[in-house]
């Protein structure tokens, strides 16, 4: 392997970025210059180099001697946010030297402890808390749910860390931590649950197993078992084909025939018109409760095994 190849392997072992001084010390100035001239290595900031294949978020963080944070860090932990961030979020120390970031970088300033950082990115717990403190409730809940779903954070860790916070955003973080649920399937479903939680209507739980009669056991997105109410988050990304449409119709009909009242909401409704979603859920809950009071049990539904998450 030639000198440039050795440098590239070394840079890859360092995570794709490194200080120019360190590379020059270990490989020589001429080797670094040849790698840059050949397009295999880029200068991404004052005194910092990166492999041409290094992800944008890591290049942005290295350029200002920071770490990837917030929703950008969530993505690196394979927790997808409700909205893909338009800019890379990078956190740098409050006392850090002011450096010009790469275009498309959103700088945040905070003093992070060793426990808050794992390599070039904030830790799962720190990332979940940062998002909970700074993002709207539906988006923050989706990220917290995602970390719980992947087993990167436990519910107890999240609640304890949120309660221990001080300063701006603590109340929001505590609210998100208390509501987070790893059973949620995706950030869109989490957003629907956030809207319902804010509405104060019903007692909806994600991904409860229920008996849909001939269709067998199914997991609707959100279920209020006591009222036999089901809420479904219908995303075109998951339902945009003819076979998916057929499955949706079969599922909807089976749930209704099993005694469930089913409300279905699109992305545009949940994200763009949450007040209408909240009002629809409140009215459905009120109708079921009023029907029970006037005529006894309005519906006879078949919940599935309650022990299954």
UniProtKB/TrEMBL annotation:
Domain of life, source organism: Bacteria
SUPFAM superfamilies reported for this sequence: Restriction endonuclease-like
Protein name according to UniProt: DUF559 domain-containing protein
Originating species: Pseudokineococcus basanitobsidens
